[in-house]
C-alpha cells in the first residue's frame, strides 16, 4: 500500500522504517528538508528491534507535501497535537476523496483538523481516524537510526465521520492489523493515554526533573503513590466515557503496569529496561507539558465539564501545571470551547461525530 508518513519525530521515523520493512511504499515527509540529513540522499534508516538491527530503504524522502500525499491511500501523522492544525492547512490543496488520515494518538485532532481543512477551502471527502497511543514504543538513536522497543498489539480506533468507518478500517487494517473499531472519534480521543500517564509522572517528579540532568519517569519515577494518582485520574477518564454512553473495553491504564491486556501488551518492564526514557526533560517545554497537559488534559477537563462529570483530579493537575508554567492551561486550543463545540447538546454532538456536520 502507498502510505504517506508526515513529521520528523520518534513516531514518524518508526512509522517510515517499520512500514517500509513490511513492504509498503512509504513517502516520508517533513517540513525542513535539511533536518533529514543524510537520509534525504540515502533514503535508508537503520531499524533496531527485538529481531536485531537492519537497514531499511524508504521509497520517497521529501519536503514536498504534495508529492508525499498524492495517490497515498493512508496518510499517517504521528506528530504532537500542537502540529496538527498547521499540517491540515498545508494538506488542504493536496487531498483527494477516499484518503484516510490516521492520528496516533489524536487528542480530538480528527475534528480540529477537519475544521482547519474546511476553513482552508478543502472539499475532499476524507476520513480521519484516531487511537489511544503510538503504534510503537520508540526512540531515535541517531539521525538515521530508530529503535522500536515494542509494537502495539491492540489499537482502539474511532473514525470521523463515523459513517465512513467501514471504508476507513479496510485501509487501516492493511497497515495496522491491530486496530480495533470503536464508536467514533470522541471515543478514540478518550482512549488517549498521554494525558493520563504523563501529567502525574512529570508533576509529581518535578523536583528530580529540575535537579538531575537526566531522569527516567517510568523507572525510578514510577512509585506507588504516583501509580495511585494515575489510577484515580484514569478512573475519571473512564467515568467520562461511561457517562457519554461508550461501551466495551475502556483500556484502563493499570493494565499497562499489571498485566498484558493493554495496548502494548506486557510493556512496562521492556520500556524501563531499554533505558531509552532516561531523558533530559525541561518541565515547561517538553511535549508531556505542551501536548499532554495543554492539549490533552485541558481537552479531558472540558469534556468532563460538558458532560457534567466530576473530574477533580484532572482539574487539579491542570491547575498545578498552570502554576508551574505561569499561564492558564485550561484555556487550551483543543478544548470543546476552543473548537466551538461546547454549546452542542448530546444529540448535536452525536450528529457531528456521525456525519461530520453539527
Give a structural overview.
By secondary structure, the protein is α/β, with parallel strands linked by helices. Helix content is about 40%, strand content about 20%. It has 2 domains: about 1-190, 3-Layer(aba) Sandwich (Rossmann fold), CATH 3.40.50; about 195-355, N-(1-d-carboxylethyl)-l-norvaline Dehydrogenase, domain 2, CATH 1.10.1040.10. The protein contains 16 helices and 14 strands. It has an 8-stranded mixed beta sheet, with helices on both faces. Helix 4 runs parallel beside helix 5 (about 110-120), helix 8 crosses helix 14 and helix 14 (about 290-305) runs antiparallel to helix 15 (about 310-325). The longest helix is centred in the middle third of the chain and has 20 residues, at about 225-245. It is globular.
SSE inventory with pairings:
Blueprint: E1 2-6, H1 10-21, E2 25-29, H2 39-42, E3 44-49, E4 52-57, E5 60-62, H3 65-69, E6 74-76, H4 84-91, E7 100-103, H5 109-119, E8 127-131, E9 136-142, E10 145-151, E11 155-160, H6 165-175, E12 179-181, H7 185-189, H8 194-203, H9 206-211, E13 215-216, H10 224-243, H11 254-258, H12 268-274, E14 278-279, H13 287-290, H14 292-307, H15 312-325, H16 346-355
Parallel strand pairs: 1-2, 1-6, 2-5, 3-10, 6-7, 7-8, 11-12
Antiparallel strand pairs: 3-4, 8-11, 9-10, 13-14
